[in-house]
Amino acid sequence: MAEHTYTGSFPLHTPGKITKASPSDVRRRNRSLIFSLLFPSNQCSRAELGRRTGLSRVAVSDVVNDMLEEGLIRENGFETASTGKGKRGTLLSIDTTRLRIISIDLSQEHLIQGAVTDLLGLPQQRMEIALGPDNHIDVDTIVQFADELRSDLDVNRIIGIGICTTGVIDRGVIRESTALGWHNVDLKSILERRFGIPVTITNDVTSSILTERFFGQGGPNLLFVRNDQGIGAAALIDDVPVVGESHAAGEIGHISIDPDHGPECPCGKRGCMERMISATALRERMRGLSHDEQMRIIREAGTYLAAALAMPIGLLDITDICVYGPADIINNAFLEAAQERLDRTTTSKFHARSVIRRCQCGTDITLRGGAIAVVRHYIEEG
């Protein structure tokens, strides 16, 4: 996997959140600034952090000392002096050895995956539960799963539990998840009462875009599409995730792309994206067909997706479109057809060419993103 070196600000701002400045707010902001310059893999001296943040030497030293003690960062050798004069500064970097996160992925069909990760979301310990076709995920199952992941850890080293799931999530409440069959489930409060640890609930596509941003090839303005058993999207604008008025941004699965002739959808419409171009729907349509016919359907799906994305691409002026999905669906035929349609519908003299590409982050994309979401919350809230 190609790793993208992240040099901008860590997207710590919660959209729509305005707080009155207080000394603790200023301290938290300073901590966020310093953490953002180091995350995920940068190294800076205290002097360099001062130059890049505009903070005084005393302010930098005060925050850095607290972060060292807390286990967020560590000293990591010395900078290379440009001249032979003066003392070399001690380099600081993210500490991956002390603090831990519990990340749980509920987005996969018939499978619950979990991991204990470091601050970069890299799994240090894994666990999974395979579910039969008649098994349904309930809250008790998640509580027991998290308890097992937590059992061998020092509770003082755990900064949070991250849950990734499909559906609409509003401040830790799963408002609607068709895949889980849940409606208005306050999973955050349930888990926090049980474990006494901060819990972050994140939509699976939002989790995935965070992984692509920090450890893939994504930039601060990115449109991300996840296509597997369903289809959903997420967007970053200037490194801030787009949430939406009802916390439902990216729920594109039930946008109809062929309302007159498309297949019927359980939602009551015809031609919804989920019924037409999700990996599950495409595999069903291609079953038993020749290779040529399968490729025709794949190319058609790529064209449909590009047509649906043309409007938000033009509206938001985004040039990087990343698609995550199984290799048999999101293949060269799919991407070439999608790119051809994008070129025809979005390229102009005042809009740079939008490029659609396949995500290379691998199967841990959701788990890792869930851990990053916990880190964001921990740094922002303290």
UniProtKB/TrEMBL annotation:
Region of interest: Disordered: 1-23
SUPFAM superfamilies: Actin-like ATPase domain (SSF53067), Winged helix' DNA-binding domain (SSF46785)
Family the UniProt entry places it in: Belongs to the ROK (NagC/XylR) family.
PANTHER family documented for this protein: BIFUNCTIONAL UDP-N-ACETYLGLUCOSAMINE 2-EPIMERASE_N-ACETYLMANNOSAMINE KINASE, ROK (REPRESSOR, ORF, KINASE) FAMILY
Protein name, entry field: NagC family transcriptional regulator
Organism of derivation: Bifidobacterium hapali
Species classification: Bacteria, Bacillati, Actinomycetota, Actinomycetes, Bifidobacteriales
